[in-house]
Amino acid sequence: MHTRSQCDARLVSRRLLLQVGLAAAGTAMSRRVSRAQPGATARVVEALTLDGGRRTLAAGALQDLAGALRGPLLLPRDDGYDQARRLASARFDRRPAFIVQATGAADAALAVTFARENHLLLSVKGGGHSDFGVSARDDAMMLDLSLLQGVRVDAQTRRAWVAGATLVGLIDHETGAQGLAVPLGGSPSVGIGGLALGGGLGRLGRRYGLTLDSIHAVDLICADGRPRRASPSDNPDLFWALRGGGGNFGVATAFELELHPIPDRVLAGSIFFPFSQLSRILKAYGEFSPEAPDDLYVELFLGVRANVETSVLQLNLCHLGDAIQADRILPVLRRFGRVVREDMTHVSYPIAQGATAHAAARAPAAAPTRDIFWRSGFLSQLGNPLASILAEELLPDPDRHINMLFLQAGGAIGRTAPDATAFAHRGARHDMIFVASSSKREGAPPHAEAANRTWGRLKSLTSGFYVNDMAGGVTPTEVAVDYGANAARLAAVKARYDPGNLFRLNANIMPAPPARAHT
């Protein structure tokens, strides 16, 4: 006689198989069982639920899931578990209850269905670069998409088909070989899914827009476990929401991206100034940035170290235009202040993007030695009062580091209407990132207080935030305010495709409540 839990597990398994097709799942089952870790699913597992409780999963239920998958199901003592749970930053050392490593959309559908039917808290990992570590959660279920890598380029139609967790360094490598590119971020180890669905700020943005502006279609597994295509003609409400709404609506397993021509060589590099000239450089940069040509991307980086002499102030730039235009622009940038050093060169665009550094970029990060405070916000202008706040707050300290990065927006990004996609911050000029850390743990509290005070002053100058920076660090109420006029439409789409808020480990959009019937 079967127990109730065994019967429930078999019922769940049958529903899982029906979701993706009996024939395909049967093939996956036979292949998975032959490669199963000895005893991998023989143990009872306790996992977090969506309501904050805990649920005991019978061994039979996990065994059924493992049998249906083509990829592995990993428990904490299994080979491969530690590699699968690792995120890009070693600040996060989290241990999920179990991990499903999907090999394709069918595995992702099985995993999502299992999570929903068991009411499990589900994290989804692509490149694992979340600044607040939402790609993994202790004792939750993890869906690891890192095996979904691949790029196919059609140079004739200027299209690329990209698997859902492909690292952007590989995309730049493959498209750049054909003289084409899609606007992407500047880190080659970031996964395409999180970047594209939340926005995508980078070196091509001022000419071609955000990464999400080049999305032609998305293949998605929604909370009901069904695969859907989102495009201008397929589920257009979902397509609108995906471009800026982040991972709130499902698991992206593939993207169709529009490609754009790039020159054989771009001018890229950095110009360094004395840190003592911070206010002057910030003012000059703020005046220049709105008038910069679309072919030029310039970001400002400053690093506060132990003293003024060791602190860093630099412009990082990438110029896509011709040599004549570059010859006109570079002298203007050099006149911002006293140039200490200049490191400029003509390289291919993929090299400027760091695509050749992908192998090193995938290596595990060093163990953390500092406590980190991370915040970000959009700015419409630089100069005062920002310069005054920085001059007062960014004082060198031997036990504290502060890094700030001003990512440039504008250009083509700002020429799209705020309601054309879910991404609403089209008028932003810069994304300001503020990171503070303390080298001595016993002295961290005063430094944390100082960082909070500094950020409190800086935040007053911001207008919203970039969800890719702050996913996991903001409340749903803050997220709704951030989306502004787009918030209600996003909540309605969320209610249609994820009414139970299964996909909540993100900059979370709450589903709109059901409409009340009139009597």
Could you characterize the architecture of this molecule?
The chain is of the alpha+beta class and 519 residues long. The protein has three domains: 4-144, Uridine Diphospho-n-acetylenolpyruvylglucosamine Reductase, domain 2; 151-261, Uridine Diphospho-n-acetylenolpyruvylglucosamine Reductase, domain 3 (2-Layer Sandwich), CATH 3.30.465.10; 266-347 and 364-470, 3-Layer(aba) Sandwich (Vanillyl-alcohol Oxidase, Chain A, domain 3). Helices cover 32% and strands 22% of the residues. It is built from 18 helices and 20 strands. It has helices at residues 4-20, 22-34, 59-68, 81-85, 105-117, 168-176, 192-198, 205-208, 236-245, 278-288, 323-334, 349-352, 358-361, 386-393, 444-459, 467-470, 476-483, 487-497, and strands at 45-48, 54-57, 73-74, 98-101, 122-125, 141-144, 151-154, 159-163, 180-181, 215-221, 227-230, 251-258, 260-261, 266-272, 296-304, 312-319, 341-347, 371-379, 400-408, 430-438. It has a seven-stranded antiparallel β-sheet with strand order 17-14-16-15-19-20-18. The chain has a five-stranded antiparallel β-sheet with strand order 7-8-12-10-11. A four-stranded mixed β-sheet has the order 3-4-6-5. A hairpin with a 5-residue loop joins β10 and β11. It is globular.
